[in-house]
Amino acid sequence: MLNVPSQSFPGPSSQQRVSSGGRSKVPLKQGRSLMDWIRLTKSGKDLTGLKGRLIEVTEEELKKHNKKDDCWICIRGFVYNVSPYMEYHPGGEEELMSAAGSDGTDLFDQVHRWVNYESMLKECLVGRMAVKPAFPKDYHEEKRLLNGMLPKSQVTDPLAKEGPSSPSYDWFQTDALVTIVIYTKQKDINLDSVIADHRDDSFRAETVIKDYSYLIHIALSHEIQEDFSVRVVENVGKIEIVLKKKENTSWKCLGHPLENHNSLIPKKDTGLYYRKCQLISKEDVTHDTKLFCLMLPPSTHLQVPTGLHVYFKLTITGTEIVKPYTPVSDSLFSEFKEPVLPNNKYIYFLIKIYPAGLFTPELDHLQIGDYVSVSNPEGNFKISQFRELEDLFLLAAGTGFTPMVKVLSYALTNIPSLRKVKLMFFNKTEDDIIWRSQLEKLAFKDKRFDLEFVLSAPTSEWNDKRGNISPALLSEFLERSLDT
Ligand SMILES: Cc1cc2nc3c(=O)[nH]c(=O)nc-3n(C[C@H](O)[C@H](O)[C@H](O)COP(=O)(O)OP(=O)(O)OC[C@H]3O[C@@H](n4cnc5c(N)ncnc54)[C@H](O)[C@@H]3O)c2cc1C
Ligand code: HEM
């Protein structure tokens, strides 16, 4: 972990900040942690001032509640009294006040659309907006059967005219199989681009096309077997999802459309979709960091692209809490060997357990076989920008190392032009260094990879670099690397 002064938490370079857009957490007063907030919401106190009554809120009414001690905010058509939450908001009172008395949906989504406000603020719910803001079309309007014709896809955002050309889908069947074919009309589609889930009788496939999501969402007309396969024909951007019928009967139609079926939506406007994953193993890596292995359900196809993260969701004392984590491989050498566990059903995470934290102790208490909800991948990083790279410098601190795991493996195996990869890895003490011996082995094995550990609180025996990140340290690191 980095040596972070307590008055500024998390530290300016902590991985707990999502760096873009100038976001910053503020130090909260004693007794104003998330756990304290959860306690307050469970205390039975009237947090809306309406004694549990829900009301219809007009725009004029909403506008009146724009002061710190009387602050209402509308998010996705629902109005919350956020005054009691002011002192608990990790982004600070000023940030929350920027949406006071108005529709804060866009602001909220720009900063942290993954935050589970519905659950956190359920005791603050004032009611609905009297006139609902524009919303995705209610799927009940469209109860027609999907009979195999190519439906014209809905583009729910006018801006999408500038986005990718509209995808479409079709389906066909044999005695035993039903194949859904998605024509993305894009060339850079691969297996990471498709996230598919089958739950009860509903089938959902989200295809990420640039910054948009194309959704197939259907209540299937017949039962299918648990597992299915996904194939991608990359050069034409065609995706085939092959479902196995439970009974060999002929289907007259694929099913009924569900919410947002056959629509192309800007990715930022899609909700986070979760599925329950089972904890398969948990291994100590350092004194406070563990390698968690989760198994996806058999009825899910999901591969997290390099550099992206997912959200975990757990219910902690009745409130759903969401936190981001970045998948890693099971070791730094797994790209070079046969996988121990087959077919991408397993996701690994290196997670530091904070004894005084809210989420990680709960995660650590899960037993093998228990479940945690895992979202679709999120993030803006695109590994394709590394394609022609010659020199790659990676800076990591503590668990901020997690995105580097897959980046390193990718760089060393997939970039032919690569000359040098250098990792500068900041930690407090030697005991905090994650996968130290694996990193050293990799540096020994692959001459293109160089490694530098920097410790902020080393023992007197430490002969290597010490201190915190600084311009001097960085320029020395860069200069020496470019010389070699
Ligand atoms: C994009 C992204 C990816 C991430 N990937 C990973 C990953 O792969 N692995 C990983 O381990 N983590 C990762 N994280 C961090 C992770 O999401 C959590 O922040 C982390 O697990 C801490 O969760 P917690 O709820 O247990 O701790 P928290 O409750 O957040 O507490 C953490 C520590 O800070 C202290 N603290 C909390 N609030 C304050 C305050 N106001 N003032 C002073 N001290 C305070 C607590 O006492 C505790 O010691 C990632 C974060 C991001 C943004
Ligand atoms: C609509 C106006 C809002 C704005 C402009 C805003 C802004 C911010 C900012 C700037 C941060 C700091 C992010 C960081 O650096 O990581 C933050 C964090 C946070 N906000 Fe808000 N916020 C808003 C509303 C809300 C609401 C209504 C909730 C309700 C639950 C909320 C919950 C949180 C939480 C839980 C975090 C911590 C996220 C993390 O762990 O990274 N915010 N917010």
Description:
- Keywords: Endoplasmic reticulum, FAD, Flavoprotein, Heme, Iron, Metal-binding, NAD, Oxidoreductase.
- This is Cytochrome b5 reductase 4.
- With about 475 residues, the chain is of the alpha+beta class.
- The protein folds into four domains: about 30-130, Roll (Flavocytochrome B2, Chain A, domain 1); about 140-270, Immunoglobulin-like, CATH 2.60.40.790; about 275-375, Translation factors (Elongation Factor Tu (Ef-tu), domain 3); about 385-484, 3-Layer(aba) Sandwich (Rossmann fold), CATH 3.40.50.
- It is built from nine helices and 28 strands.
- The chain has helices at about 35-40, 60-65, 95, 105-110, 115-120, 360-365, 400-415, 435-445, 470-484, and strands at about 55, 65, 70-75, 80, 100-105, 125-130, 155, 170-175, 175-185, 195-200, 200-210, 210-220, 225-235, 240-245, 255, 265, 275-285, 290-295, 300, 310-315, 320-325, 325-330, 345-350, 370-375, 390-395, 420-425, 450-455, 465.
- Strands 7, 10, 11, 12, 15, 16 and 19 form a seven-stranded mixed sheet that branches. Strands 21-20-24-17-18-23-22 form a seven-stranded antiparallel sheet. Strands 1, 2, 3, 4, 5 and 6 form a six-stranded mixed sheet that branches.
- Helix 8 (about 435-445) links the parallel strand 26 and strand 27 (about 450-455).
- The chain is globular, with a radius of gyration of 25 Å.
- The two termini are about 30 Å apart.
- Residues about 1-20, about 135-145, about 150 and about 155-160 have low confidence and may be disordered.
- Flavin-adenine dinucleotide binds near residues 309, 349 and 402.
